[in-house]
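Today's session is about reading a structure prediction critically. Students often jump straight to the picture, but the first step is always the sequence itself: look for stretches that repeat, for charged clusters, for runs of hydrophobic residues. Only then move on to the predicted structure, which in these notes is written as discrete structure tokens rather than atom positions. Here is the chain we will use throughout the hour.
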Amino acid sequence: MRLYGVTGWKNAGKTGLMERLVAEMTARGLRVSTVKHAHHSFDVDQPGRDSYRHRVAGAGEVLLASRHRLALMRELRGQAEPTLAELLAMLAPCDLVLIEGYKRDGHPKMEAFRAETGNALIAPGDPTIRAVASDVALDLDRPVFDLNDTRAIADFILGEVGL
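Below is the predicted structure for this chain, in token form.
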């Protein structure tokens, strides 16, 4: 399975870049899946819905399925957060998995950077960051792309993973 990450600090443009990359790459005929790390508790279910009621009643897993999509919700109930490798093993085969977040994992990454956030670049101290997508010109020892040049960023990533 080919992997490539998009990382960066909060409000750096990661999600927008991910969204544009998925659209660009699927338009090229590639099957793309994504993994997004959340640093907080989240709920994809809604109170009062049948699946929510199953989960709250104590179900360890609730699989919600229709002819259009399926969703598997698993309650960890005090267990350790699954590793990225464990999560990747759950995905159906695809051409590329784009990973948002997971700064500390060892897969190759593109850093999204917006100067207005006031955060320092991660790239200089992280060899897994192969390039930076920025809203300002930067002088780095690796490629720097305009944050909005989705086609060039997609070309770079696909070249990196051999697609």
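Discussion point for the tutorial: The helical segments are 14-27, 50-57, 84-89, 150-161.
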